[in-house]
Amino acid sequence: MIVSRGLSASLFRHRLLLSKRNIVTSVGAMASTGKNKTAERTKGFETNLWVEYAALAIESKAINLGQGFPDFSPPQFVIDALVESSKTTMLHQYTRGPGHPRLVKALAAMYSKLYGREINPMTEVVTAVGAYTSLYQSIQGHVNEGDEVILVEPFFDCYNPMVCMAGGKPVFVPLRPSASADKGEGRYPLTSSGWALDMDELKSAFSPKTKAIIINNPNNPTGKVFTRSELGAIAELCISNDVICISDEVYEWLIYPGKEHVRIATLPGMWERTITVGSAGKTFSATGWKLGWSVGPAPLIKNMMTINSNTAYTNPTPIQEAVAIGIETEMARLGEEGSYFKELPSLLLKKRDRMIQVLKEVGLTPIVPEGGYFLLADTANLGIKFDESTGSEPYDVQFAKWMTKEKRIAAIPPSYFFSPEHRYISDGLIRFCFCKEDSTLEAAYDAFRKWAAERRN
Known about the structure:
Layout: H1 9-30, H2 49-59, E1 63-64, H3 76-85, H4 101-115, E2 125-128, H5 130-140, E3 148-153, H6 159-165, E4 169-174, E5 176-177, E6 195-196, H7 199-205, E7 210-216, H8 228-240, E8 244-248, E9 274-279, H9 280-283, E10 292-295, H10 298-309, H11 317-332, H12 340-362, E11 365-367, E12 374-378, H13 395-407, E13 409-410, E14 429-433, H14 438-456
Parallel strand pairs: 1-13, 3-4, 3-7, 7-8, 8-9
Antiparallel strand pairs: 2-10, 5-6, 9-10, 11-12, 12-14
Helix pairs in contact: 1-2, 3-11, 4-11, 5-10, 12-14
């Protein structure tokens, strides 16, 4: 059973927000003039989506269905592992820089089984301060000034600034609602499988300057799980153009019935050119532990280890030890009853289906996700109008702010996950997160029902 422990979610978010506000204020004061001016490579990336919307949710006293972190506890066996590791003297000291030996061995054993090939724990695995930093290592370790990096949209918002700060040029190729997808009576596909790449458009994005492509599977925010055929088409383009694939697979264990998570690194010709990014936070519902990893061929991982040794150097030893124990425990019972890798998606499936039901009641049109713990919903049927003049904020941004302030339900506008030229694709959509305690979700559903009653009157 998953239960809440420790700080309340609201108190935790409040403390986190105050910390971020202090940082932003300090940087803003320093960056104004002279030698304290912000570095040019950060130009255009001064604001942060998560800081802004966390602040809005707190100020509005809204129920936060925006940010993607659980407000329930990690499984007890990893909590116990962390407690026990804290009792061992040497686990309070530095460990091996590229990854704690026990953890990289556990990861290598897990992915060796999943990939059907032997993975060397010392040369083909590297850990990081969260998957965020794993992405940073992969981009900084490989992208040179002027290199092009294809970003499949929608993408997690850090991809673009990380590529730009490395001197690279992002090339955007969006998932679009497929013309053949079942849309029912709505504007968007009924399920996330209805989002698809135009392969001709993707092919045209490759050039002699293309260094890498970044994909997110399962995708945030659509919940799309790429099919073997889709990944095979991406793989063919990577191979024919000699391009690195950075595959962000942090939601790899959150796959719902009827879908299969295919790891692109397992496709023919892809191991030697693929970096796969994983996350302890997403795997064990412990986002505050900030531990990520990458698995791939030794030449690519070596480049990432160079970035690691010159930035973070190492990661917290007790957390790495606890996650190692967690992975060892799960691999011993993979697919069996009692496995957290099986229990968590089953739990989230119920929460997903319940949210879909309630969103329909209020007049929203949900797009059923196949993986992850986010859900997009179309707001068109609500008929709510906002400023559409030139220069105004996108509709979904205005809707998210209005809903947070007026209905006290916080969500995220998905246009932030698209490049400016493709934001029209998410017109009228809003992203909800359902990896929350039932009590949190029921409080939100009460607010939704009140809203539905107001619309009927």
